[in-house]
């Protein structure tokens, strides 16, 4: 389980509690749009680390459980605000459709396309790395669930990728949302199994281990880890644009993050009360072998069902950047006159699926490499760029406290990004220097 754990930790996926943030949107916003559940799965949909902050349960950790949702929700709202401008009548009108449009608007008129290129590169890296991670985790979980079978971890990854090839035929976000709905159901099963086991041991809960005190040194680390479980900015412009009632976007985000915050906190507490000081980093390692195997299988299903969303998003970015844009791209249009994907375009999609497999199998220390790139692209897309764009586009309309908040988030995001980059670089150097096995 070590490789998967490191990969999730390095990229913000291994969190100190269950990531139910992407379960609640489907429940709360099903009347708003059927695609909300799919788009809001975004990232972090395969987090199964146990509640390490409650291993000491200090006041700073308790605060860190509840502060990131407010930061993330605000960043998501200001990114959507950058899509709008006031018309002559004072009405807010949507003048931009994507993250790229926002970036281009900020760099105009001197460099009208520079911002879009930067965002596109960051998005592609982030999304493809996420796809590769799901393949790595699927192979790792299956290998650890059935250690006695004569199948290597790489072979399990190949089997998982074979099941992912149909993703090349995805046509729209509506189809992706169906996979996300199934992913949500798998998540419910996993939560029910783990919580049921914890409740079965309620008589032995270690209430005496729960203590509250302030640990100043741990607080920044806790914030840096937890905050990444609330990142879905890449998908938000498309989500808001496809909602049946875009005016309810803010309400939806508020309730989603409130529910996620409460559920994560409760899960973390229940899990720690069950295992106390013996709580292990990955929650499946705390379970008995029988339940562990069942949970791991559902986690594999969850990983495979999560794959279509980042894959489809990456395909859309690549197609728009290189294969369709009114004849302004480097290659011919991959769609025919009837709107159908050409055969060679389908082949390229299949090639992208195979590419994620090859990266998962052959790239050494992929977990650390992902942490290295993710500390830059993830923090940039989710925290640094939204704050900069908000200040650039809406500077004249912002109040002083809004400016202060944007600057504060930019500084905090920058610190987390630099810290993650340095630690990942140190890990890579150490791994290659001492030939550490993954």
Automatic annotation (TrEMBL):
Which family is this sequence assigned to?
Answer: Belongs to the amino acid/polyamine transporter 2 family.
**Domain Amino acid transporter transmembrane, first and last residues per copy:** 78-425
Q: Which domain of life is it from?
A: Eukaryota
Q: Where are the transmembrane segments?
A: 121-143, 155-173, 179-199, 219-236, 256-275, 346-363, 369-391, 403-422
Q: Which GO terms describe its molecular function?
A: gamma-aminobutyric acid:proton antiporter activity; glycine transmembrane transporter activity; L-amino acid transmembrane transporter activity
Question: What reaction gets catalysed by this protein?
Answer: glycine(out) + n H(+)(in) = glycine(in) + n H(+)(out); beta-alanine(out) + n H(+)(in) = beta-alanine(in) + n H(+)(out); 4-aminobutanoate(out) + n H(+)(in) = 4-aminobutanoate(in) + n H(+)(out)
Membrane topology of the entry: Multi-pass membrane protein
What keywords is this UniProt entry annotated with? Cell projection, Cytoplasmic vesicle, Membrane, Neurotransmitter transport, Synapse, Transmembrane, Transmembrane helix, Transport
Role summary: Antiporter that exchanges vesicular protons for cytosolic 4-aminobutanoate or to a lesser extend glycine, thus allowing their secretion from nerve terminals. The transport is equally dependent on the chemical and electrical components of the proton gradient. May also transport beta-alanine. Acidification of GABAergic synaptic vesicles is a prerequisite for 4-aminobutanoate uptake.
Say which species the protein is native to: Mugilogobius chulae
Q: What is its main location?
A: membrane
> Where is this protein localized, as stated in its record?
Cytoplasmic vesicle membrane; Presynapse
The answer to whether UniProt assigns keyword Membrane to this entry is: yes
> Which PANTHER family does the entry link to?
AMINO ACID TRANSPORTER (PTHR22950), VESICULAR INHIBITORY AMINO ACID TRANSPORTER (PTHR22950:SF689)
Q: Which terms does the UniProt entry file under GO BP? A: gamma-aminobutyric acid import; neurotransmitter transport
Task: List the Pfam families.
Answer: Aa_trans
One GO cellular component term? inhibitory synapse
Q: Does the keyword Transmembrane apply?
A: yes
Any idea what this protein is called? Vesicular inhibitory amino acid transporter
């Amino acid at each position: 389980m070590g490789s998967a754990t490191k990969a999730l930790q390095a990229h913000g996926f291994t969190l100190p509690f269950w990531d139910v943030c992407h379960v609640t949107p489907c429940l709360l916003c099903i009347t708003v749009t059927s695609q909300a559940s799919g788009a809001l799965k975004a990232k972090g949909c395969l987090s199964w680390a146990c509640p390490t902050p409650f291993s000491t349960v200090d006041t700073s950790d308790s605060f860190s459980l509840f502060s990131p949702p407010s930061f993330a929700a605000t960043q998501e709202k200001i990114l959507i605000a950058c899509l709008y401008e006031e018309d002559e009548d004072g009405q807010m009108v949507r003048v931009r459709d994507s993250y790229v449009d926002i970036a281009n608007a900020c760099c105009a008129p001197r460099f009208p396309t520079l911002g879009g290129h930067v965002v596109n590169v960051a998005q592609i890296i982030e999304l493809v790395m996420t796809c590769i991670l799901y393949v790595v985790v699927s192979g790792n979980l299956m290998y650890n669930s059935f250690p006695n079978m004569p199948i290597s971890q790489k072979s399990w990854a190949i089997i998982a990728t074979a099941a992912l090839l149909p993703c090349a035929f995805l046509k729209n976000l509506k189809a992706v949302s169906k996979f996300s709905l199934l992913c949500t159901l798998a998540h419910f099963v996993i939560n029910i199994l783990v919580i049921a086991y914890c409740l079965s041991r309620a008589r032995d809960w270690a209430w005496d281990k729960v203590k509250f005190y302030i640990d100043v040194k741990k607080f920044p680390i806790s914030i840096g880890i937890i905050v990444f479980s609330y990142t879905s900015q890449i998908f938000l412009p498309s989500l808001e644009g496809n909602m049946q009632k875009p005016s309810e976007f803010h309400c939806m985000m508020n309730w989603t993050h409130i529910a996620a915050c409460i559920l994560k906190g409760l899960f973390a507490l229940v899990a720690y009360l069950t295992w106390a000081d013996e709580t292990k980093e990955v929650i499946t390692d705390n379970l008995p072998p029988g339940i562990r195997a069942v949970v791991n299988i559902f986690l594999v299903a969850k990983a495979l069902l999560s794959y279509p969303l980042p894959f489809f998003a990456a395909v859309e970015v690549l197609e728009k950047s290189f294969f369709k844009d009114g004849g302004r791209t480097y290659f011919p249009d991959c769609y025919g006159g009837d709107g159908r994907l050409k055969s060679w375009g389908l082949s390229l999609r299949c090639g992208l699926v195979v590419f994620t497999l090859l990266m998962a199998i052959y790239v050494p220390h992929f977990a650390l490499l992902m942490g290295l790139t993710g500390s830059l692209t993830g923090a940039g897309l989710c925290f640094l760029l939204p704050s900069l764009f908000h200040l650039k586009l809406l500077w004249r309309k912002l109040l002083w406290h809004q400016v202060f908040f944007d600057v504060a988030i930019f500084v905090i995001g920058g610190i987390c990004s630099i810290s993650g980059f340095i630690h990942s670089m140190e890990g890579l150097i150490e791994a290659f220097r001492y030939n550490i096995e993954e």
